[in-house]
Amino acid sequence: MDKETLQGALAEYFAPWVQALNLRVEGFGADGVTARLPQSAELSRVGGMLCGQAMMAAADTAMVLALIQHFGEFRPCTTVQMSSSFLKPLSGQDALVQARVLRAGKSMAFGEIDIRGANDGKSVCRASVTYALL
Predict the structure, then answer these.
(1) Euclidean distance between CA atoms 47 and 30, whole angstroms
(2) CB of 125 within 8 A of CB of 84?
(3) Distance of CA 55 to CAs 4, 38, 41, Å?
(4) Where does the Thioesterase domain start and stop, copy by copy (predicted)?
(5) What local confidence, expressed as pLDDT, does residue 4 receive?
(6) What is the per-residue pLDDT across 28-39, written as a single tens digit (0 to 9) for each?
(7) pTM of the predicted structure, to 2 decimals
(8) Which CATH number does the domain housing residue 15 bear?
(9) Contacting residues for 95 by C-beta, under 8 A, at least 6 apart
(10) Residue 57 Cα distances to 50, 54, 63, 106, 123, angstroms
(11) Number of domains in the chain
């Protein structure tokens, strides 16, 4: 697996509105993927804060990339559960979305996501997810 393959998966497997988030794969390891969500006016609400909907879409997308990394290929899946906690607002900087596979079996996968400010490294959102592998 390499960054180009993971980046290419965004165009191949995700809807145009997800591609419009402009996520960029920053890195990957044995258990996950880190993607950058660029700051933009289109994803911000009053006061320039990144909106929660954008964070959740980025988290879900990064987790699918982490599953691609984990399995070495795309496996069709669907989100069964996603629970999030918003810790503090994020404004004036990109977000780093770190998705980590906790366990992946034959029919289910579990993961966690930490979204941090790219400049200050402070965690702004934590999410846990469950996927059905199809």
Answers:
(1) 37
(2) yes
(3) 23, 11, 14
(4) 52-121
(5) 96
(6) 998 899 999 999
(7) 0.96
(8) 3.10.129.10
(9) 36, 37, 39, 50, 55, 58, 115, 116, 117, 118, 124
(10) 12, 5, 10, 25, 17
(11) 1
Please give the single-letter amino acid code of residue 104: A
Nearest to residue 84, comparing CAs of 74, 103, 99, 104? 99
Tokens of 85: 């906690």
Q: Which two tokens stand for residue 42?
A: 């289109």
Q: What is the pLDDT of residue 32?
A: 96
Which is it for the CA torsion 54, 60, 66, 69, positive or negative?
Answer: negative
Give backbone dihedrals phi and psi of 57, rounded to 5 degrees, phi first.
-65, -40
- Arithmetic mean of pLDDT over the chain: 97
Which residue segment(s) compose the domain that 79 sits in?
3-133
Q: What residues contact 109, with CB distance under 8 A and at least 6 apart?
A: 67, 70, 77, 101, 103, 130, 131, 133
Cα angle: 26, vertex 31, 33; to 5 degrees: 20
Q: How far apart are CA 91 and CA 50, in angstroms?
A: 6
